[in-house]
Amino acid sequence: MAKFESTQHIGDIVANFPKASQVFMEYRIDFCCGGNRPLKEAIQEQQLDETEVIDKLNNLYKSYSEEIALKEENWLEADLDVLVDHIVNKHHGFLWRELPNISQLTTKILRVHGAHHPELAKVNRLFHMIKMELEEHLTKEETLQYPAIKKYLESNSKEDLSEAVRIINELEEEHTAAGNILKELRVVTKDYAIPDDVCATYVLTYEMLQTLEEDLFQHIHLENNILFPRLFAINNK
Known about the structure:
Elements: H1 10-16, H2 20-26, H3 39-45, H4 50-63, H5 66-69, H6 80-113, H7 119-155, H8 158-166, H9 168-188, H10 200-235
């Protein structure tokens, strides 16, 4: 019996099987900001072959050995403080480390190749928009949101839980804004196609932008589809 069906929500599929994100990335299906909708809706919107996408998901799941699966952290059941630490250490750490590096790269290729590739002006502008928004967002999470969650986990108080969930809607809106910029970068770069007349730095820049996209989608997925719903579920009990 197939594990995944098109009627399931995209975010739920990735929450239960993280490697499904590979399939969604391949088909440009948004599993972070757009995770709270049925897969069928995204398939129809992008005029994809539903059978092909579902078969690829289920075949990947089938081939994913039980031994390897056991090594994957189940974030749906992991302690919330472990999940928070993972997001901060892995995903926030990546962004704080790499955003300045990518900034230098986008500016450099604009200077070197901008005359022959005018789209780089928009790439540079879009990247610095998302860089500014992400730096503000990370600071808000690290100084307000995550300390509030940790405080609730220590106190188990309803008041502390209410404070922890208070800012979630605002954070989700910021996630959507960041996701939209990433999608626009995809369009401007024609899915990060590499022209024939460019240098190794140009190639590296586009590779780093794609790495940023992949990491940020995983980051937002963990928050929008797992961390935040778990907090809401506890708050609504």
